Structures are given as C-alpha cells and as structure tokens.
Amino acid sequence: MPQVIPQLINGQWQASNARELIEVTDPATQEVLALAPKATHEEIEAAIAGAKQAFFSWREVPVPERARLMLRYQHLLKEHHDELAEILAGETGKTFADAKGDVWRGIEVAEHAANICSLMMGETVENVAREIDTASYIQPLGVCVGITPFNFPAMIPLWMFPLAIACGNTFILKPSEQDPLTPNRLAELFLEAGAPAGVLQVLHGGREVVDALLTHEDIRAISFVGSVPVGQHIYRTGTQHLKRVQAFAGAKNHMVIMPDAPKDQVLSNLVGASCGAAGQRCMAISVAVFVGESKQWIAELAAQMAELRPGYWKDSGAAYGPLISQQAKQRVQKLIAEGKAEGAECLLDGSHCEVPGYPDGNWLGPTLFRNVKPNMSIYREEIFGPVLVCMEVDTLEEAIELVNASPFGNGTSIFTRSGGAARHYQHAVEVGQVGINVPIPVPLPFFSFTGWKGSFYGDLHAYGKQAVRFYTETKTVTSRWFDDTPVSGPNMTIQLK
Length: 497
Known about the structure:
Layout: E1 7-9, E2 12-14, E3 21-25, E4 32-37, H1 41-58, H2 63-79, H3 81-92, H4 96-113, H5 116-119, E5 123-129, E6 132-140, E7 143-147, H6 155-166, E8 170-174, H7 181-192, E9 200-202, H8 207-215, E10 219-225, H9 228-240, E11 244-248, E12 253-257, H10 263-275, E13 285-291, H11 298-306, H12 326-341, E14 345-348, E15 367-370, H13 377-380, E16 387-393, H14 396-405, E17 408-409, E18 411-415, H15 419-428, E19 433-436, E20 452-453, E21 456-457, H16 464-470, E22 472-480
Parallel strand pairs: 7-8, 7-10, 8-9, 10-11, 12-13, 12-18, 13-16, 15-16, 18-19
Antiparallel strand pairs: 1-2, 3-4, 5-6, 6-22, 11-21, 14-15, 17-20
C-alpha cells in the first residue's frame, strides 16, 4: 500500500483518522505515489485551536528573532533545493529544470521574509498638537490560512506562510490534494529551522476542509490561488464570514507583438511562455496579438512550436511534462475540439500526443490556433495547457482595446523597439502586471504580485509590502504626558492648536 501522508498538527506529524483518502499519482505513469487524507472535523478543530494558542506566545517573539528563523529556513531550503525539486517533479510531472525554478522562486520569498524588521516599521509624528505625539504600530492578526493550487506546490505555499509567520501570525496550510508531498517537505524543513510547535499547521483534503476553514470564527485571514469558480467561492464565503481574503484566480494573458520587434527574440520567448510547464501557469502567455506585418511570423512560430517535445521529468531533452491529471487533459482536448468546430484554424494539434515508454501519461503536444475570434471558447476560457491562440490586428490601439475587453487582468507583455509604443501600452492597458520585452512579468518578492479584474478578488496582493499589510493591522497611539503643573479644571474642548 502507498504511504498515507501525515498532517502537521501542533508541532507533531500525525496519522489521520480519515476514512476517505485521495490518491496522489505520477501524471506521467499514473503510479500511485501516496495517499492524502481528508482531514476530519476533529483534526481541523485541533489544528485551529493549536494555531490560536500558539499565536499568543508567537506574537510576543521579538521581530529580529522571527527574522532569524526565516534566515535559517531559507538556508535549509537552499541546501535541499534539488531534493525538493525531485519531489516536486515526481508528483507534478514538471521537468527537473522547471521544478528547480518553482522551488527557487519560493526561496526568494523566504529571503524577503527575513527582512521583516524593516517591513514591520510603523510611523511617528512628534507634536501633532501641543505636547501630543502620534505613532502607528504594525501588529499581527492571528490565525491565517493558505489554500494553494497544484501547479506551484513549492512557490505558492512559500508566497504565504513565511511572510504571514514573520509578521507574528500563526498559519494553517491546506495544499492541493493533487501534489501534497512537496508542501509537507517544506513544513518539515520549517520545523527543522526551529519553528515553534503550532506556528505552522498542515491539513490535507478537499472542499469540505476548505469550507470548514473559511467559516471558522477563529480564522482571521485567507490566502488563495486557483481557478475562477473556486476563487469566487472562497472570496464570497470568507468575506461573508467577516475575514480578510486575497483570492488569485484565472487569467488570459496577451503578448502584443509590434512589427518593429526583434523577430527571433519574440518567437523564442513566445514558445517558452506559452508551452513551458505544459501551459499550467496563471502567468502563461495564451494569446499572441500580432500587430500589422508581424502576422507574417506566425508560420515560423508554428515551425518552432512543432519542435517541442514533452517528456518525463528525468528526460533532459523534454521541453515540458504532462498535465497534472487525466481530467485536466480531457478538458483541454475538449477546448481544442471546440476551437476547430467554431472555425479557428488549427496549425498544430497536440490532442493525441504520445511519449514513447509512457503510454499512460497525461500528454498533450504543443497546439497553435490562428484566426481566433473573441467569441470563441478557446479565447474566452483559460485553457491551462500548451495551447496558444493567435489574433491579428492592424494597430496598437486595436490591441489595447482587445486586451482591455478581457475580463481578466493578470499579466500582459509587449515586444517592441519603440519606447513610445511601450510607454503608451504600459499606461493604457488595464492589466496588473506588464512586461516590456519580458514575456512573463512576475515581479520579485520585494514588489507584489498584482493581478487585476477577474484575476484577483481582494484589496491587498501577495508578497511584498502589500502582503505585510494583508497579514497585519495598524494600531495608532496618540499620547500626551503631563508635567507637575496644577490643572484648574477639566478640559472639555478639542484642541485645535
């Protein structure tokens, strides 16, 4: 029997009493790697109670000590970088290089959390009125929750719990049930770094576990990354129960290609940004908008994409791995079929891809469409596969109108040699993250991940200064100290000077 993975509750790895177990499979072979429990009501309550109790002592730990914990943690993550990448590749199917990138981008956020001392600094003004001073202090919230997706099982948990805990909160992580082995290993290393019992808890399961966390009175804030329907459910349910929520949802990211752009760089970047990680990235480029004469490059784009070969994660020549599940593969195949039926021209069709030696893998070959219209399902829906759709416009203004009409606003990029065109695009486009000659403009952790519109529900974004504000609240203290001069009577007025 495969191993039933444990849960981290109050500093101890515990076997679950769950009767329902979820198979964790290798998407390249369908081999069952492990079994994840669906946490019981009692286990959920124990984790929340433990996190609440741990908060009362953890919030009093001096901020420099919290920073030192993060310094030790990022050091351990670097020591175990390749080990984590192997675990991640095995359960997600990502190529080893891609898995290492997943881990490293998470390490960068842990590094950023080690700077928490300066990030937690408040503000002061002396003599806001005569002999009266005002200061603001940044203080933690309490028990926070992170609900993370399958596609980045290292990076996205590390977006959340290091910063939340460095701010003085305690944290409950509910990772994707499709690849929970990597998050468990992240938590093991966090304990090894010296995290006190109860500061981080890890629960496994599906929607029932999520809903229990969303509605529990002791949970103060919820961070989520995933699909649009789930993101909307989490935002509505969490806010209805008076919690802070940041919910990162779907995307449809456009790359605008101007005719003056360097063709070789455009095509190379476009191939990697659309098919890397099998397209299973919320910042993947899934729409190429060719402006004017740049449409002549589409044939060369098809030729370069046709050379991509998916494969097993140990295959150094593989461009990307399988999709996460058979259900995910079937969904993408359905959208490809709909695109053809709706009249789009399919220049490359990866629906029936095979990889020698791995007949049961969730493989999809690179797929390219041309003559796509905004009303087609392959344009309207987030495909989350190695599928790129091409659209053609005459001017930059038409490209901007197309991008701005999309209900999503996660990321976009423009490739051009013109500073004026780039400046106009970055100013006019209604998207939160813009790349100029950069295909996937994911910011480093000292900025924040700033999706807009239907790509994000909430007010404060992930990592960076915005995450610190999300995981904390501000206390403002106005003070006046009296000398020994006698006071004739009570002051009944508000001081104006």
